[in-house]
Write a structure and sequence with these properties.
By secondary structure, the protein is of the alpha+beta class. It is built from six helices and twelve strands. The two termini are 27 Å apart.
Length: 256
């Protein structure tokens, strides 16, 4: 459970070998950190870009955890699955208080790490063509759909992805994943920082802090971090972003 003074670190890296990104990480640079089981799982993937993303994503997870606990080498972490299928730290025992979540999209991987607080992250690159008017029916609440319909056509894709990434990050944080309908949670984007307006998951899932940033090549990253039952303001949660397009360790800084 989160507590006052929660600190979340959010990491995002471009991936060379998947898209042409200058200065991006190469999967071969982090392959040594993966366990034998992770390499075996990686090798079952058919596409080269999927294997590269898998390697980069789990390499970033391991490096991010070691940034939080420098006494553990990246290749020493071992994981297990929760009852809901969520990966968690199993070894070393002293590291089990760390929570993490990962996400990847074409040419980009992201990870969030906290101590004891639930967390979720989602990164997307909105450039690809999508049937937005069909997708909005499964993603947006009625109020969000009205905002989408009233937006200028040139802003609708960005608006949709802002909602989508926030909802993905939030549902991953509360542990339901996509088993809980996206339309049942609603966000307010008009107050500077994203805020949860309403949800059907119950009051115990209401106390979260949200941030959202643009990243390289038109990408968008969102993070959700548990604030705890006594969380009445965002001062309880500090989010430090390590992103390729903004200054390192920007506490409480976002473009939205």
């Amino acid at each position: 459970m989160g507590y006052p003074g929660t600190v979340a670190h959010v990491w995002c890296r471009p991936v060379n070998g998947v898209a042409e990104v200058r200065g991006g990480a190469r999967p071969t640079d982090v392959e040594w950190t993966l366990s034998d089981a992770e390499r075996a799982r990686r090798d079952t993937l058919c596409r080269t870009q999927d294997r590269a993303l898998y390697t980069a994503a789990w390499g970033l997870v391991r490096q991010s955890l070691s940034a939080a606990e420098p006494w553990v080498r990246p290749d020493e972490w071992r994981f297990q699955r929760s009852s809901l299928g969520r990966p968690e730290v199993h070894h070393p025992v002293r590291g089990r208080s760390l929570r993490f979540n990962l996400s990847h999209t074409e040419g980009m991987v992201a990870c969030v790490v906290t101590r004891d607080a639930r967390c979720g992250v989602d990164v997307e690159r909105p450039g690809r063509a999508l049937p937005l008017h069909r997708l909005t029916r499964t993603v947006l609440s009625a109020r969000e759909q009205r905002e989408f319909d009233l937006a200028p056509p040139g802003r609708r894709q960005e608006l949709f992805f802002r909602y989508w990434t926030l909802k993905e990050a939030y549902l991953k944080a509360i542990g339901t994943g996509l088993r809980f309908p996206m339309t049942a949670c609603e966000f307010d984007l008009g107050g500077g920082r994203p805020a949860l307006r309403s949800l059907a998951a119950g009051p115990r899932h209401a106390h979260y802090t949200f941030r959202q940033w643009p990243v390289l090549h038109g990408g968008l990253l969102a993070v959700a971090v548990q604030g705890g039952p006594w969380h009445t303001g965002e001062d309880d949660v500090t989010i430090r972003a390590h992103l390729p397009q903004i200054r390192e360790e920007c506490t409480h800084h976002s473009y939205f």
